[in-house]
Amino acid sequence: MGPTASAKSRPEEYPRPESVGTDVNVLFFSSAFCDPCIQTRGVLKQVATLVPAAKIAELDIARDEQRAMEAGIRVAPTIVIVNDANEEVFRAEGVPTVNQVLVALAKAV
């Protein structure tokens, strides 16, 4: 699960956090220069297919630097899953597996 970096562009697949409000339960901190971020997008796409109720927001750590600092983000990609009380129940630095994210979402419910 260790992160590595190289130059790739980031497509706008997930809504910005401000557009989804406080209902976001999966925060995906990414970077435009990150191959593992591309892999993580694939994992989250599978998760979204399996759990349509999952609300995923992608935050670029350069554009959303303040929010990344507040969340204690050290590397990209990092996935943070929170429950309805906005308490963190899961954090993965690097590329998580689909199963890890599914179990974490179940804990958040």
Structural notes for this entry:
There is one protein chain. A hairpin with a 5-residue loop joins strand 3 and strand 4. This protein is an alpha+beta fold and 109 residues long. The chain is globular, with a radius of gyration of 13 Å. The protein has one domain: Glutaredoxin, CATH 3.40.30.
Task: Briefly say what this structure is.
This protein is α+β, with helices and mostly antiparallel strands and 109 residues long.
Question: What ranges have pLDDT less than 50 throughout 5 or more consecutive residues?
Answer: 1-22
Largest sheet: 4 strands, mixed
Total helix count?
A: 4
Residue share in β-strands: 15-25%
What is the second-level CATH architecture? 3-Layer(aba) Sandwich
Q: N- to C-terminal separation?
A: 25 Å
Helix content estimate? 25-40%
Mean pLDDT: 81
What's the CATH H-level homologous superfamily? Glutaredoxin
What is the 3D shape? globular
The SSE order reads HEHEHEEH
CATH top level class name: Alpha Beta
